[in-house]
Specification:
single chain, alpha/beta, Alpha-Beta Plaits, 3 domains, nine-stranded mixed sheet, 24 helices, about 45% helix
Length: about 725
């Protein structure tokens, strides 16, 4: 796939991510909010004592003063006591929508008609009137609830409203009906506020509206109205984007803040305050019965804003917040008001949404450019860095500036671009390998061609079982290397690698079974007999490594001339000897001369283990027995993937000349001793012998098995931390092919 098409697909994916952001899908929104919740849970607002308290109609107060609803005369006493204490405002988190049934005029209807009793009760004051009188003498805010039921009732508006900038009406939460307190109580109060808490789709309260709207009438929330009354202010000033000093980027993006008295409260575009919660503390609460106790000193409440609400198990208004799944409803209002007083706000300004889209575009384009230049590994690391950076930036903004920046949609953009780029790379790599396979599948060994020419009747399905030595050879990190080339150059590269390797195999009586992209599969002792098949396979493997040195030298020189990075070719070879089925296999229309069998699969597994053990050639035990005069080292007793029985594996390091050298003899003896002590779990002796092996190996210029030593050093260290069972049989179980 050409680079232009790849970039176009990535840009399309980025556009999709931006569309997801703009569309504000519910599931994405919930993910965003959950991240913001996590931030609060990790770093909640710290509680400091503020002049805001809750007079709590708790279970103890109900036990002392009687069941709810209390007579309004008790509520009147409660207001009087607080008023005498000099509180700044009293906010009712209760709607008194019905007349007091304990008032004298309602009590009389429960009894038989008695003139004397009627006369006496008529002389007694009405409880609602008493309550209204107490309210009129104090700074009280009554409460009402907004709903969407069409109602003839309207909550009284006690404040004026003005706005700076564009009309805020379209952005406010809109309702059609009310549940109000009694008119006598509303008339007596200085303020009147909505008790509504706007919950998100998951039922969590994260924001409190400061101003709402019904028809064309603005109404304040309970906490906003309490703050207004406490300051003696008369008007709310609603600022929208485009007002003096407010950033709008040329758009009518909504409300930015609400000014109440001398305090300006930042809000989202719908006039909602993001509540920065503290954990629950009893310091906010004063039981109602204590306030009514004449002996209780209320002087510490002077100048405080008091909310009257309930935490009673039977009465309480349960709300879910990011920090508490069962918070008292009144506490939500109080925590919002605390923020207004301390100025410790969470901010998500109106411009953030546009800034997040701009950030997505910048990060997305950077990722697209970098992914086209980086290898698969570095591309993955850069993607992880981008994801981590997005989250870290959001967390930093929260910690340092209390600004809520969405890390979710940028993360989605990054993930989608990476996945699309990885898929494109995978498809491109597979396409390139397929092209290589198709090009070379037409070639057979000269020996097989000669046999077929002499005996055309052999072109039929079938085969025979005989002992073969099978070779698998694969380029390590082929995908990384292939990324440097276009299709034509990659084909040329593969040809340059396969040609000398194939020549060596054929010159040593081998048969090419197939080419699988960058992998060569070959075998010896068929179709022509070769009694030295194991030796010839091993000699081929050693010569292939020698030829690779020369090939890498030419590749390095060409890379310098082309101005590209040189990546040396490294190969892994697996050899195994055993009984296999060999013959023409396939369909009536097309077949290949190939081998099948368990020992073929083992040869493939051994090639895969060459990287694990840090050697170039891994051979099976049967092969090793047939080349006793060549230089080999036992690697391990291993249970390869797909096998149930362990096999002993070896590495081939050289020919007879290396075998008889003094340094190799010392290396071989010490390495065998090391394996013996390792399997007996004598780790101290193993480490000492391993050090000796490294010393001997360093004196042999023709070999490099540092990776093998590092493997056993790591295993010994791991066994020191997590020893295997005492009955361990020394078998290593491979988890990969």
């Amino acid at each position: 796939m050409n680079n232009t098409l790849r970039i176009l697909i990535s840009l399309l994916i980025l556009s999709l991510a931006i569309y997801i952001k703009i569309s504000d899908f519910k599931i994405v929104k919930q993910m965003q909010l959950k991240v913001f919740d996590t931030f609060q849970q990790k770093y909640p607002r710290q509680y400091t004592d503020q002049p805001v308290k809750i007079v709590d109609i708790d279970d103890e107060s109900l036990e002392k003063l009687g069941q709810w609803p209390w007579p309004r005369s008790i509520m009147a006493d409660l207001v009087d006591r607080l008023n005498k204490a000099g509180v700044a405002a009293i906010a009712m988190d209760i709607v008194f929508s019905e007349e007091d049934r304990t008032s004298p005029k309602h009590i009389l209807s429960l009894w038989k008609k008695e003139d004397k009793l009627s006369y006496l009760l008529d002389e007694l004051p009405d409880h609602d009137t008493l309550f209204a009188d107490s309210i009129s003498g104090a700074n009280v805010v009554t409460g009402f609830v907004l709903n969407n039921d069409i109602s003839s009732k309207f909550a009284q508006s006690k404040a004026g409203y003005s706005y700076a900038g564009n009309d805020p009406s379209p952005f406010l939460s809109r309702f059609r009906g009310y549940i109000t307190s009694l008119k006598i109580l509303e008339d007596a109060a200085n303020g009147n506020g909505a008790l509504n808490s706007i919950v998100d789709d998951d039922g969590i309260i994260r924001r409190i509206p400061l101003v709402l709207i019904t028809a064309s009438t603005f109404v304040p929330s309970l906490s906003a109205e309490a703050l207004r009354i406490a300051q003696g202010a008369s008007t709310y000033i609603i600022k929208t984007a485009g007002a003096s000093g407010e950033t709008s980027f040329g758009t009518n993006s909504g409300i930015t803040s609400v000014k109440i008295g001398h305090l300006e409260i930042p809000t989202d575009r719908t006039a909602k305050l993001w509540v920065y919660y503290t954990r629950y503390t009893q310091e906010r609460y004063i039981p109602a019965w204590k306030v009514l106790d004449p002996n209780y000193d209320l002087s510490h409440l002077e100048g405080n804003i008091i909310f009257i609400g309930t935490s009673s198990e039977g009465l309480r208004d349960i709300r879910t917040t990011p920090l508490n799944p069962a918070a008292n409803g009144v506490e939500v209002h109080v925590q919002a008001l605390e923020q207004m007083l301390t100025g410790d706000f969470l901010n998500r300004p109106d411009w953030v949404h546009g800034a997040e889209i701009a950030m997505m575009i910048a990060v997305g384009l950077t990722l697209i450019i970098m992914m086209s230049k980086l290898s698969a590994l570095w591309g993955a690391l850069f993607t992880l860095l981008s994801l981590g950076g997005s989250l870290a930036f959001s967390w930093h903004s929260f910690l340092e500036y209390k600004t809520l920046i969405d890390p979710v949609t940028p993360g989605i953009a990054i993930a989608l671009i990476y996945l699309s780029e990885s898929l494109i790379r995978y498809i491109s790599s597979e396409t390139e390998k397929k092209q290589v396979r198709n090009a070379f599948s037409h070639y057979m060994s000269p020996a097989l061609v000669e046999q077929l020419a002499k005996n055309p009747d052999s072109l039929k399905l079938g085969g025979e079982t005989k002992e073969l030595t099978i070779l698998f050879c694969d380029i390590r990190g082929f995908t990384t290397i292939s990324e440097q080339f276009d299709a034509h150059s990659l084909t040329h590269f593969i040809n340059r690698f396969l040609t000398p390797m194939t020549t060596i195999i054929l010159d040593n009586k081998g048969t090419i079974d197939k080419y699988m992209g960058d992998c060569i599969m070959a075998f010896w002792n068929a179709p022509l007999d070769d009694e030295n098949h194991a030796r010839n396979a091993c000699l081929s493997s050693l010569k292939m490594l020698d030829a690779l040195v020369e090939l890498n030298s030419r590749q390095e020189e060409e890379a310098k001339q082309a101005g590209r990075k040189f990546i040396p070719i490294n190969i892994g070879i697996g050899l195994n000897t055993g009984s296999c089925c060999v013959g023409n296999m396939g369909s009536e229309q097309r077949f290949d001369y190939s081998v099948l069998g368990d020992d073929v699969n083992l040869a493939s597994r051994l090639e895969g283990q060459s990287k694990t053990y840090g050697v170039n050639i891994v051979i099976g035990e049967n092969t090793k027995k047939k080349i006793e005069d060549m230089a080999t080292l036992e690697l391990d007793l291993i249970q390869v993937k797909g096998k149930t029985e362990p096999v002993r594996i070896f590495t081939l390091l050289g020919d007879k000349e290396l075998k008889i050298s003094d340094n190799f003899k010392l290396l071989s003896d010490d390495f065998n001793k090391m394996l013996h002590e390792y399997r007996l779990q004598n780790r101290k002796k193993s480490k000492a012998l391993l050090r000796s092996c490294k010393t001997h190996a360093a004196k042999i210029a023709a070999i490099n098995i540092d990776g093998l030593f590092e493997l056993y050093e790591e295993r010994i260290k791991e066994f020191e931390k997590n020893p295997p069972p005492k009955n361990w049989d020394g078998v290593f179980i491979a988890t990969s092919k």
